[in-house]
Amino acid sequence: MPQKNECSKIIGFWVFIFLSFSTFFLVSEIYAADDLKSIMQLIEKGEKEKAAQQIDQYLKINPNDPQLMFIKGAVNADLKKYNEAINAFTYLTEKYPTLPEPFNNLALIYIELGDYGKAQKFLESALKINPEYFTAYINLGDLYSKRALVSYGKALEIDKKNVSAKNKYLLIEKTIKYK
């Protein structure tokens, strides 16, 4: 069975990537560069709780800043505050429905929570918005691998000696571990 730690590593990796390349938003409002810089420095130092507090303070003044809302979602996901992360990314999907990234990040959260059906729905939404969104294809492939692992695991519960199921389970498990 896939382990929660593996999903956390995947989410942590994507949080880092998306924070590093968070310029996908067309910023509709001018934000205080010093505030963003301060928040990013806290994140880089691993002080995500403090960063989350600063983000919340900033969003009280600028509630429609999509870039900070995205970072809020990513930081909260990394802190395992999934409801807050879901709320942030859901807000972005409603306010900016042509951006695939928030849909992708919702999928990552639902993978972490083990709700593979919702995860698949959000990844498919991201790909409908942008059929060339590479990251969503990778995450969808990872999701299929996790689903296959669950299925082979259940098959092994029924027939522990089934060589085919065991070999496939071990192959997928090994692949998932080395990502």
What does the model show?
The chain has 179 residues and is mostly helical. It has one domain (4-177): Serine Threonine Protein Phosphatase 5, Tetratricopeptide repeat, CATH 1.25.40. It has nine helices and no strands. Helix 1 packs antiparallel against helix 4 (66-78), helix 1 (4-20) packs antiparallel against helix 6 (100-113) and helix 5 runs antiparallel to helix 6. The longest helix is centred in the last third of the chain and has 25 residues, at 134-158. The radius of gyration is 18 Å and the shape is elongated. Mean pLDDT is 84; it is low at 19-31.
Which helices and strands, and how do they pair?
Blueprint: H1 4-20, H2 33-44, H3 48-61, H4 66-78, H5 82-95, H6 100-113, H7 116-129, H8 134-158, H9 163-177
Helix pairs in contact: 1-4, 1-6, 2-3, 3-4, 4-5, 5-6, 6-7, 6-8, 7-8, 8-9
Produce a short descriptive summary.
With 179 residues, the chain is an all-alpha fold. 77% of the residues lie in helices and 0% in strands. The chain has a single domain (4-177), classed as Alpha Horseshoe (Serine Threonine Protein Phosphatase 5, Tetratricopeptide repeat), CATH 1.25.40.
Question: What are its keywords?
Answer:
about 180 residues; single chain; mainly alpha
